[in-house]
Design brief:
Keywords: Cytochrome c-type biogenesis, TPR repeat. The protein is built from 16 helices and no strands. With about 300 residues, the chain is an all-alpha fold.
Length: about 300
């Protein structure tokens, strides 16, 4: 994969939803008590047991073995095609297994199937909002995420990550979200657990250049490496311009540092750190932690 496509594929952190609480457990055993080899043997020995394949898919995903997770979840959906959670898990695994496209068609098909079965499936709803964000409809994506937040039970595993996504996409695209997040809180009732600041390693690893359009993603597949890089540098320049207008956006500076580092522009990554520190002395520790994760000194 060309470096520019690597940057495009890192446009957003996707692991916002977690199905641990919703998963059935095969044979009454906790998955943590079983090794990958145990789970694989169990699935192979029970080829028609959808729960065994689901547990294997979950374990493969947790180990970062995304292609293998796709295989396991695909088998689970074949055996139990009426479970929305299996389709949305398959879609997420396909996203993570994709080397080029941040939202491959096969993943979208799985998410859409999940929503046909359960229109309230949170993971599928989240990713279809990601689709809108990648296509440049940032306002529409935020509206969808806010609707999802309004239906999210207080304390759900993905609650803080979802709120953080809304905040960060709003900051990068100059869309106010604070009052709207509060309204989502009031709409659902109960106490809202405010999004905790993202740990430095998570942000640096998961965020990159925001918002390539669907046309840009499609065009990148036919570009030469030089053209791909030119497209990526244009996205970085756009982010940098937004930071000049809003230098208090610490998340944006972290994204710029990562983008420069990904493009191999070490000196410019250091300059981004220096500019970020000058504009945000109160966030110096956070910014230096971000830089350290990226190897910027």
């Amino acid at each position: 994969m060309g470096v520019a496509l690597a940057v495009v594929a890192a446009a957003i952190g996707y692991r916002a939803l977690d199905d641990r609480e919703a998963r059935p457990v095969a044979g009454g055993e906790e998955p943590a008590a079983l090794t990958i080899e145990d789970l694989q043997r169990r699935a192979d020995a029970a080829p028609d047991d959808s729960v065994a394949w689901q547990e294997l898919g979950f374990a493969r995903y947790e180990r970062g073995e995304f292609a293998e997770a796709v295989t396991a979840y695909a088998r689970a959906t074949e055996l139990d095609p009426d479970q929305a959670i299996l389709w949305s898990a398959l879609g997420e695994a396909r996203v993570m297994a994709s080397a080029r496209d941040p939202l491959p068609v096969e993943a979208l098909i799985a998410f859409e199937q999940a929503l046909k079965i359960d229109p309230d499936d949170p993971r599928a709803g989240y990713f279809l909002a990601v689709k809108r964000d990648l296509a440049g409809d940032h306002e529409g994506a935020i509206a969808d995420w806010l609707a999802l937040l309004a239906k999210t039970p207080p304390g759900a595993p993905w609650e803080s990550d979802l709120a953080r996504t809304i905040e960060q996409v709003g900051k990068v695209n100059d869309i106010p979200t604070e009052a709207r997040i509060k309204a989502a809180q009031e709409a659902r009732g109960g106490t809202f657990a405010a999004a905790a600041p993202a740990p430095a390693p998570t942000l640096a690893a998961a965020q990159g250049i925001p918002g390539p359009s669907a046309d840009q993603i499609a065009a990148a597949r036919t570009m030469s490496p030089g053209q791909q890089r030119e497209m990526a540098e244009g996205m970085v320049a756009s982010l940098e311009s937004k930071l000049k207008a809003n230098p208090a956006n610490v998340d944006g500076w972290a994204m710029l540092m990562r983008s420069r580092a990904t493009l191999g522009q070490t000196d410019l990554a250091r300059k981004a750190l220096a500019d970020a520190l000058a504009a945000n002395p109160g966030a110096a520790q956070r910014l230096r932690s971000e830089a350290e994760v990226l190897g910027i000194r």
